[in-house]
Amino acid sequence: MAEPYTASEMMVVTAARALRNDDVCFVGIGAPSEACNLARLTHAPDITLIYESGTIGAKPEVLPLSIGDGDLCRTALTTVSVPETFQYWLQGGRISVGFLGAAQLDRFGNINTTVIGDYARPKVRLPGGGGAPEIATFCGEIYVIVPHDRRRMVDRVDFITSLGHGRDGQERHRLGLQTKGPTLVITDLCVMRPNPTTNELEVVSIHPGVTVDRVREATGWEVTFRPDLDTTPPPTTAELEVLRDLKARTEAAHRGGG
Amino acid sequence: MEFLSLKEAIAEYVEDGDVVAMEGFTHLIPFAAGHEVIRQGKRNLTLVRMTPDLIYDQLIGAGCARKLVFSWGGNPGVGSLHRFRDAVENGWPAPLEIEEHSHAAMAAAYAAGASGLPCAVFRGYAGTDLVDHNPNIRTVECPFTGETLSAVPALKPDVTVIHAQKADRRGNVLIEGIVGVQKEAVLAARKAVVTVEEVVDDLAPSSPNSVVLPAWTIDAVVEAPGGAWPSYAYGYYDRDNSFYLEWDEISRDRERFSAWMADHVFSHG
Prior knowledge:
The complex is a heterodimer of chains A (258) and B (269).
Chain A: H1 7-17, E1 24-27, H2 31-41, E2 48-51, E3 55-56, H3 70-75, E4 78-79, H4 82-90, E5 97-100, E6 104-106, E7 111-112, E8 115-117, E9 122-125, H5 132-138, E10 141-145, E11 153-154, H6 171-175, E12 182-186, E13 190-194, E14 201-206, H7 212-218, E15 224-231, H8 237-256
Parallel strand pairs in A: 1-2, 1-5, 5-10, 6-11, 10-12, 14-15
Antiparallel strand pairs in A: 2-3, 3-4, 6-7, 8-9, 12-13, 13-14
Helix pairs in contact in A: 1-2
Chain B: E1 2-3, H1 6-13, E2 19-22, H2 31-39, E3 45-48, H3 53-61, E4 65-70, E5 74-75, E6 79-80, H4 82-90, E7 97-100, H5 103-114, E8 119-122, E9 138-141, E10 148-153, E11 159-168, E12 173-175, H6 182-188, E13 191-200, E14 211-213, E15 220-223, H7 241-252, H8 254-266
Parallel strand pairs in B: 1-15, 2-3, 2-11, 3-4, 4-7, 11-13, 13-15
Antiparallel strand pairs in B: 5-6, 8-10, 9-10, 11-12, 12-14
């Protein structure tokens, strides 16, 4: 019998499975970093993880709290300056997957991490773009990991911090971008991919125990379900063990000094 | 280059109204120097930093800043910078003008400043809304291919302040680990102050390619052990992640923030 697991574990495990052993991955902090390191510790031991602090090939023992924790540098193949990271490695087109989170994500995969409300007089001032605006256009493709609720999954983001497929789904083509943009969205309810023609995000699989109605209610637009809708395979005991062990080590390390 | 106390260095090299860059990408953030700027009551500063982090949250909350130039304003892995948010959302303790960029843009802008160029040219901001809100994000046409490229003005701080592991007795400085944009930020600035963990006889760089800033690129070196806490100094002490978590609570409330500053910043030095 399968072990019980949380919705968040389901999300991270599903995200980890999307990564390949030969990927070179630009890693955002938080859930993306969890998924990338879970992949590294399970089916993708040779994956190259790059954090924007310039640590290339990092193999952290515990999940970093920041993108620049010492463990990343200590375990990296090499550590380069921040200008070099963005100029040679990202803009130079050497990264296959960018893994991002989002405060808001819209039907065309555009990401907002800047403001809720008006830019000049924001209701909520969020941290901003950081590396993400260029990660979104220079990595071969983008995976987004985001908890699924109406506040986050919106029809139209208040602000495009990082380009998905644009306001009408066709912006990347107009801008002549050679990269694919968001090809995969993993939430705690389902997995989504852009429609091959319109680039609108559609549900391709639903996590075990989640209903179509629940996904519909949690999504800020009239969401489409693919006709061949699948059930996402649940986490295996081995995946859960590695993830929980990693998170326990991390918790002990970050609170330990306190 | 002169060796000074922290008090002397900040008094001499940071003036009201200056454009100040205190760099260090998560690592080697010059907190001790930031606290001295707060204690000396510097005002109307334009603060430049890719990631404002807790150091600028404190400077903003203490009323030192008029303007912030930045590219990611969060508490890494934790959430918001509450003093930064309070200034932007509610104008407390004073309104804060912002000039917002992406990391790629700021990194390129520091490199342009260090290179003596007027602007940085790169590929960036494609399809983003920030271009409509920051008039300093512009485009240029490549004279060779006709491509449209992004341009931002070079960053040329009046003064850059960084923290490093070591200086030797002549004032040459060694930076190891995550080196961020410190070299570029120092070379881009009119004046540079470096605080270090220790002053040693021999830098003993681990490789001929180590990041070393020659003494003649620096105005003042200050010995300030522990000066990067709660960030860290690779090879000396780790990042105090538990304090970054705690800051979320301390900074959320104006009174609790002010009390913390009184106890930990104003009563020291």
